[in-house]
Amino acid sequence: MRVKIIAEIGINHNGSVDLAKKLIDTAVLAECDFVKFQKRTPDLCVPAAQKSRMRKTPWGEMTYLEYKKRMEFGFDEYREIDRYCAARGIQWFASVWDLPSVAFMRRFTNIVKVPSAMLTNDELLVACRTGFDLVILSTGMSTEAEIAHAVEVGQPDVIMHTNSSYPARVEELNLAYIAHLKAKYPHASIGYSGHEFGLVTTFAAAVLGAEWIERHITIDRTMWGSDQMASVEPGGLLKLCKGIRAIEAAMGDGGDRVIYESEYEKREMLGSSPIVKANAA
Question: What is the pTM of this model?
């Protein structure tokens, strides 16, 4: 099965449609399958204790609630993103953090992701399942029991293993959990969403059977923003996609050892003995 690659733009657009378009262009150049954003209603999603806290931003000092509103795309911005993605030939969708965002995104796409932070929100899980054709569930910072309950309630098509730290420590990635999810939920596709530095561990996830791979992308990891440092820059994204496709080509079917056409000449040149044929049954 061909691995589906998601370029997670998230909030790395910093409230700029022009920057979002550059990130979309990067994903297209790398031949990703999807780009993904995040959709919130700040008045609902920002915890009450955080709303009035002051924060320094590139647009000046403002409350955390004002900052989140400043970062959030509305209908006009997403309509332009929808148009631009269609023109560039790439699908897009978003993680939704609240019920109004579910209704909002249904106007644009039939794919949705439930973020790890909302895995215990049964109402949101049901709304996503009834509202979209393809539901992706992320499992970071969740217990085994919470994940099992979310799968029962939300019936996701794709379950993503992830560590929700930004960046995640390599020794805390637990990539072997991919095999656990594949065995426990055979009806679903299992994927991996990485927030770690580097690409090696994400390549390993593909080898271990992840059918979906997601990484945050950025133009420059030194840009302002909470997710930028744990993201992959354009050159890294090109390497990631090329590497995953090479892994797919290299995996083979796991059947009996065969001699490839390219090996026959080498065998003859090295003077190997005649081919031994298996005994007839």
Answer: 0.92
Please, are residues 211 and 224 in contact by the beta-carbon 8 Å criterion? Answer: no
Q: Please give the angle made by the CA atoms of 110, 112 and 117, to the nearest 5 degrees.
A: 165
Residue 184, SS3? helix
Q: 3-state DSSP call for residue 109?
A: coil
CB-count exposure of residue 243 (10 Å: 0-12, 13-18, 19+): middle
Query: Which string of b and e fits 90-117 if b means at least 16 CB within 10 Å?
Result: bbbbbbbbbbebbebbeebbebbbbbbe
Domains of the chain, first to last: 4-255 (3.20.20.70)
Residue 277 confidence class, pLDDT cut points 50, 70, 90: low
How far is residue 201 from each of residues 26, 167, 215, 240, 281, measured CA to CA in Å?
A: 22, 13, 12, 11, 44
